[in-house]
UniProtKB/TrEMBL annotation, chain A:
The keyword Cytoplasm applies. One of its GO terms (molecular function) is metal ion binding. GO terms for biological process: nonfunctional rRNA decay; nuclear-transcribed mRNA catabolic process, no-go decay; nuclear-transcribed mRNA catabolic process, non-stop decay; ribosome disassembly; RNA surveillance. Belongs to the eukaryotic release factor 1 family. Pelota subfamily. The lineage of its organism: Eukaryota, Metazoa, Ecdysozoa, Arthropoda, Hexapoda. NCBIfam families: pelota. It is found in: Cytoplasm. Residues 372-394 have a biased composition (Acidic residues). InterPro entries: eFR1_2_sf (IPR042226), eRF1_2 (IPR005141), eRF1_3 (IPR005142), eRF1_Pelota-like_N (IPR005140), Pelota/DOM34_N (IPR038069), Pelota_N (IPR058547), Ribosomal_eL30-like_sf (IPR029064), TF_pelota (IPR004405). Residues 1-130 form the eRF1/Pelota-like N-terminal domain. Its cofactor is a divalent metal cation. This is Protein pelota homolog.
From TrEMBL, chain B:
GO terms for biological process: regulation of translation; translation. It comes from Drosophila madeirensis (Fruit fly). Keywords: Cytoplasm, GTP-binding, Hydrolase, Nucleotide-binding, Phosphoprotein, Protein biosynthesis, Translation regulation. Gene3D superfamilies: DNA helicase RuvA subunit, C-terminal domain, P-loop containing nucleotide triphosphate hydrolases, Translation factors. It catalyses: GTP + H2O = GDP + phosphate + H(+). CDD domains: EF1_alpha (cd01883), HBS1-like_II (cd16267), HBS1_C_III (cd04093). Residues 67-76 have a biased composition (Acidic residues). It comes from the Eukaryota. The keyword Protein biosynthesis applies. Residues 244-467 form the Tr-type G domain. This is HBS1-like protein. Belongs to the TRAFAC class translation factor GTPase superfamily. Classic translation factor GTPase family. EF-Tu/EF-1A subfamily.
Length: 394, 669
């Protein structure tokens, strides 16, 4: 993303002009734009004209519109962001108050005006504009009969294709069916890699599986590549990396990202960092349960006593419609920072972020144990029940 | 308006919105994806939003499990007790519930499954959980009943509402099927314990309103009269009385303990592998310089397995002993193939645990995170309670008795902890490679000097045959799908309960697609009917091969299996590295099914032995705890409550290649 202009006054009002350059930027834009903001961008509008005789002609014009955003749709696969809202600026073609749907396009700038910019949003812009953040990795997690081909970018994990083939088991006297099924499965996975992985961008391709599936597949792939003369694969042979995973399901990506060899290769990417932070949280919960808490209520209370050392928070909490709720989380983040704590904002598009979102979306590692938090809430269970963030097991 | 448009001269480019042209091609177009897949990929903003608000503001008024209104209780109870099969526990508070469940367990362990749950519960309530009195009452009743003519005692007493049906259609008393009254309950029951079916990948049968379905299931899925009125027990006696009884035995143990070799040698010695084949294996394995693998090759057939010298998938073969037909399931020992081992173990009745007696090998397999432990716990949690322990490769330590007793003492105390009864575990020394003490009594002087027990084959012979649930509705779990020799395709698996005959109508999987049984084979021999406990292959007609996946359940159309995405289970957590919290992603193993699931709620942690609720809504579950949790899967799955179908109510949870918990399904929603 390119930042073309930023005018934010002291009251935190103002506008920002941005130009998305790659599909990932759409995800950032999706996280930036909230309902009620106004977005100005160039777009195509079909205009109908009625002549004096009553016949109508329609023509498509490119024009610049400003809309007050009402609904936001994000297609994760195509990385398209679609904003719907009413026109709020005079325009020769479009009436005031008429609905229009803006598609944000790559390499076309848009201007975003917010009634109030908060730190999270400003940070997001900074992050989106940081060119060093980008590190694209493709990963294939597979087991016999199931494979996920994923792309891991700085803030997103996209499942590009899921391959599910039922492979007959080995049985007395007919091993061929098993082996035929396996070959068919490998072929599909290979085709999927050829189709979805852009070797110009991708730094490395991780192939992860339990057992020997990855080795078998790797052998098969390069045999085929030689046979069928797939230049693309042969040229990039060095980019493939074989890693262990316990299964072919999507969440074993977490294990892959924890693998020491992988960590060494993509050490400072967000995805790996997030997995590590979440792991830390779980370890703490195991060893010292009084120093790890999750759920809004507990974390807020820990923040009050300035106990939070590391705050893990999922970015879907900032995307919520309720302005006040968002504000609450923003203040939480700010207060933790003020107290010298570290804040990790998880992308909900990553595996670890998904898990955190399930875990109420917010978790904290404390500086000192606060056992009183555990005990305190048997009496006021009410709102704890929703988050499940109450009493401890002992 | 549209009628007056001049269609011929219309400029389509103008009419075209342009979207479909340019966008929306997230995936390649010729590769069609199903809605569920698409749903998985598409990011739905609303979904995320809902979950936040659910955490924060709403949900306050969701009733907790334990809550109830005193006033409603009696009424609800009265209503619930009308149906015995789908009998719901009376709503009690946590304490009572715990008392009741421990009471029921106690009684069950004495009387078995013969008595309906409803009866036990009622009696327990009547005598205020005094086990002695309850047992007296129930057993007295039972003896009274068994004095009456045959065939009856095993069935829960039919209830008025349903006998109407059988009464209206007079049948000779001897023919009153065991199944019929039961089915009647299901149909008449106000609520089948199943949740609304979320559309699977294909949903050919309209299952929209689930309550409707259960009520009208009889009319939706028509079955032949013959199928409806079949008498399982009689059929079984007619078909099988002249045959030996079947038993499935899984062979487990740490990698390289010699499981496949042991089984291969056993097969060879019992004459199930011809001399010629054995000679071929010997020559070929010699060529690879792995002659010790010659017996293992009997079961390890794929090139991959032979080249690497380890078993990867469950190998199957059978031997006949004097009184039994034993199906051997040779499980892989390697850590990465435990999923295969689990799917094999779900089919087994008994297990053979092979341990390597070699110095250092036993220790690494047993103590240092080896699979001996995990396998033993797994099979126990999967309902296997008879275990034969084979101390293998004893020839490498010179048939030393000290080594044997050392291993036996270690294992004995461990197995006791794992929940095996001492009387159900036996220890046999042998050598898989030399074949000592396999089929014939030990000959080796060093061994006979201190061992005079039975050879392995006799141990297998002495396994008790577990009782088969013939009179329950049909359930069969699919473990494999393949192209048959003739037309169509075959699915193989194990009949868990009930009976299946050629030309029966059955329901397949979570989509509840109807299919017809074309042919049945068991061990390559065609059969006209198969019974609970059999390992079979079925050819189905009327269902697409793509709609069947490994792990789905085939069920009786009249009492279809509940389909759900969310259920409650009581789990026992093994030793875990990180605690289980809500939102914890796990792999759910159920029969042969492996499905990703999320622990979405920790309802309560309970005391391991007493079943009392220790803490409601715990924050996390650490090692060796016991808890009630709710699990949610992304796709609908077929599952049964443990109380209804033991075989189908067991689950395993695994994370990152480690089994973290085993449990049983307590509630389906």
């Amino acid at each position: 993303m390119k930042l073309l202009g930023k005018y934010v006054d002291k009251g935190m009002q103002g506008n920002v002009t941005l130009m998305p350059e790659e599909s990932e930027d759409m995800w950032h834009a999706y996280n930036l734009i909230a309902e009620g903001d106004s977005v100005r961008s160039t777009t195509i509008r079909k205009v109908q004209n009625e002549t004096a005789t009553g016949s109508s002609t329609s023509s498509r014009v490119r024009t610049t519109l400003t809309i007050a955003v009402e609904t936001i749709d994000f297609d994760t696969q195509a990385c398209v962001l679609r904003l719907k809202g009413r026109n709020i600026e005079e325009n020769p073609y479009v009436k005031m108050g008429a609905y229009h749907t803006l598609d944000l396009e790559l390499n076309r700038k848009f201007e975003l005006r917010k009634p109030e910019w908060d730190t999270i949003a400003l940070e997001r812009i900074e992050m989106a504009c940081d060119p060093t953040q980008s590190a694209d990795v493709a990963a294939v997690v597979m087991q016999e009969g199931l494979a996920h081909v994923c792309l891991i970018t700085a803030s997103m994990t996209l499942v590009r294709s899921k391959i599910e083939v039922s492979i007959p088991r080995k049985r007395k006297g007919s091993v061929q069916q098993h082996e035929k099924g396996l070959a068919k499965f490998y072929e599909q996975v290979m085709q999927s890699i050829l189709r979805h992985v852009n070797f110009d961008v991708v730094k490395c391709v991780l192939i992860a599986s339990p057992g020997f599936v990855r080795d078998q597949f790797h052998d098969y792939m390069f045999q085929q590549a030689v046979k069928m003369d797939y230049k693309l694969l042969l040229d990039n042979k060095s980019k493939f990396m074989l890693v262990h995973a316990s299964s072919g399901f999507k969440h074993s990506l977490k294990e892959v990202l924890q693998d020491p060899a992988v960590v060494a290769k993509m050490s400072d990417t967000k995805a790996a960092g997030e997995v590590k932070a979440l792991e830390q949280f779980y370890m703490m919960l195991q060893c010292e349960p009084a120093k790890a808490f999750y759920g809004k209520k507990h974390v807020l209370r820990a923040a009050e006593s300035q106990a939070i050392e590391m705050l893990l928070i999922s970015d879907n909490l900032f995307r919520c419609q309720d302005v006040n709720l968002r504000k609450e989380y923003v203040t939480l983040v700010e207060s933790v920072r003020d107290a010298g704590g570290e804040v990790k904002i998880f992308s909900s598009m990553h595996i670890s972020g998904e898990q955190l979102a399930q875990l109420t979306g917010v978790a904290a590692l404390l500086r000192f144990p606060m056992p009183e938090l555990e005990d305190s809430d048997d009496d006021d269970d009410e709102d704890g029940a929703a988050g499940g963030d109450d009493s401890d097991s002992d | 308006m549209s009628r007056h448009r001049i269609v011929r001269t219309m400029d389509y480019n103008d009419e075209y919105d342009g979207y479909d042209d340019v966008y929306g091609h997230s995936v390649d177009d010729d590769h069609c994806i199903s809605p569920t897949d698409a749903q998985q990929w598409l990011y739905d903003r609303e979904r995320g939003r809902q979950s936040i608000s659910a955490f924060i503001s709403k949900n306050k008024d969701i009733k907790e499990e334990g809550e109830h209104d005193e006033d409603d209780e009696d009424e609800a109870y009265e209503k619930a007790r009308r149906d015995s099969e789908s009998f719901q526990m009376p709503e009690l508070d946590e304490m009572e519930q715990a008392k009741l469940s421990s009471c029921v367990d106690e009684v069950r362990s004495v009387v078995g499954d013969a008595v309906s749950e409803r009866r036990i519960v009622e009696t327990s309530m009547k005598f205020d959980y005094d086990i002695q009195k309850i047992l007296d009452e129930i057993l007295n009743e039972e003896t009274k009943k068994s004095a009456k003519p045959a065939l009856r005692p095993k069935v829960p007493v039919p209830i008025a509402a349903t006998t109407v049906k059988s009464a209206s259609k007079p049948t000779p008393p001897a023919k009153i099927s065991l199944k019929e009254p039961r089915r009647g309950f299901e149909i008449a029951s106000p609520k089948l314990p199943s949740s609304p079916v979320v559309s699977g990948r294909n949903t050919p049968v309209d299952v929209g309103g689930d309550n409707d379905l259960s009520r009208t299931s009889a009319s939706v899925f028509k079955v032949s009269k013959d199928q409806a009125q079949r008498n399982a027990q009689q059929l079984y006696e007619k078909e099988r009385s002249d045959q030996k009884s079947h038993i499935h035995m899984i062979v487990i143990g740490h990698v390289d303990a010699g499981k496949s070799t042991l089984m291969g040698h056993l097969l060879y010695d019992t004459g199930n592998v011809s001399q010629r084949v054995m000679h071929k294996h010997e020559q070929e394995s010699k060529k690879l310089g792995k002659q010790s693998f010659m017996y293992a090759w009997v079961l390890d057939e794929t090139g991959e397995e032979r080249a690497r010298g380890i078993t990867m998938d469950v190998g199957q073969s059978r031997i006949e002993t004097k009184t039994k037909i034993v199906t051997l399931l040779d499980a892989p020992g390697h850590k990465d193939f435990i999923p295969n081992m689990i799917s094999g173990a779900t089919q087994a009745d008994v297990a053979l645990l092979v341990v390597d007696a070699t110095r250092g090998e036993f220790e690494s397999g047993f103590e240092l995170g080896g699979q001996t432990r995990e396998h033993a716990i797994l099979v126990r949690s999967l309902g296997v309670n008879q275990l034969g322990v084979v101390i293998n490769k004893l020839d490498t330590v010179g048939w030393s008795q000290e080594r044997f007793t050392e291993i036996v003492t270690k294992l004995r105390s461990f197995l006791k902890q794992a929940g095996f009864k001492e009387s159900d575990v036996s220890f046999t020394p042998c050598s898989g490679l030399t074949g000592e003490n396999l089929t014939k009594k030990a000959q080796e002087a060093a061994l006979t000097s201190w061992y005079s027990g039975r050879p392995l084959l006799d141990v297998i012979e002495n396994f008790k045959i577990p009782e088969r649930a013939l009179d329950r509705p049909l359930r069969m779990s699919v473990s494999d799908i393949y192209k048959g020799t003739g037309s169509g395709f075959c699915i193989s698996g194990r009949v868990e309960t009930g009976v299946m005959c050629v030309n029966d109508k059955v329901l397949v999987g979570a989509s509840r697609e109807q299919a017809q049984v074309k042919s049945l084979t068991m061990d390559e021999f065609p059969q006209t009917s198969v019974f609970a406990g059999d390992q079979i292959a079925v050819t189905l007609a009327g269902v697409d091969i793509n709609n069947i996946t490994v792990g789905c359940i085939i069920s009786d159309p009249q009492t279809p299996i509940p389909v759900t995405t969310r259920f409650q289970a009581r789990i026992i957590v093994f030793s875990v590295k990180v605690p289980i919290t809500m939102g914890f992603p796990v792999l759910l193993h159920h029969q042969s099914l492996i499905e990703p699931a999320v622990v979405c709620k920790l309802t309560a942690s309970i005391h391991k032995s007493t079943g009392e609720v220790v803490k409601k809504k715990p924050r996390c579950l650490g090692s060796n705890s016991c808890a009630l949790v709710e699990l949610e899967t992304s796709r609908p799955i077929c599952i049964e409550r443990y109380a209804d179908f033991k075989e189908l109510g067991r689950i395993m949870l695994r994370v990152a290649g480690v089994t973290i918990a085993a449990g049983m399904v307590t509630k389906i929603r």
